[in-house]
Specification:
By secondary structure, the chain is of the alpha+beta class. A hairpin with a 3-residue loop joins strand 2 and strand 3. Helix 1 packs parallel to helix 2 and helix 2 packs antiparallel against helix 3.
Length: about 140
């Protein structure tokens, strides 16, 4: 029932407290979003932050939520050990696939990048895609 910016900030603070991470969080003011969009973005953030806690051995995490003219963009980056090249296709790794499915079901894209020192998860949901709109 809370706005997406407040939800993302709360999830980031909870994760940083549990895992003793240095946190940078910037969310700005988000418009009122349809429940499906809010849920998808919060679940992506929750899963990405859980992965940082469980697997990354990171010391810092950055969560950005940006409302652009044509899209909503959620980015979670850490300075941990990075993803293995086959992370999404490994048996039992349903969290990454679940994030992708949630975002793609709303017409968006999910990108995972890792340079061997850290991981970035970026969810991009285009505004006006026809599948949903702000204020729906």
């Amino acid at each position: 029932d809370e706005p997406i910016d407040a939800t993302l900030e709360r999830l980031a603070i909870e994760a940083s407290t549990r895992a003793n991470l240095k946190l940078s969080c910037a969310t700005g003011d988000a418009p009122e979003l349809p429940p499906a969009v809010t849920e998808a973005l919060s679940r992506v953030a929750q899963e990405a932050l859980a992965n940082v806690e469980r697997h990354a051995a990171a010391t810092t995490v950055l969560l950005l939520f940006d409302v652009q003219p044509d899209a909503l963009v959620l980015t979670i980056s850490d300075d941990g050990r990075g993803l293995p090249p086959d992370a999404e296709t490994r048996p039992g790794h349903y969290g990454l696939r679940g994030m992708r499915e949630r975002v793609e079901s709303l017409g968006g894209t999910l990108t995972l990048s890792s340079n061997g020192r850290g991981t970035t998860v970026k969810a991009r949901l285009p505004l006006g895609s026809g599948q949903w709109s702000v204020g729906q």
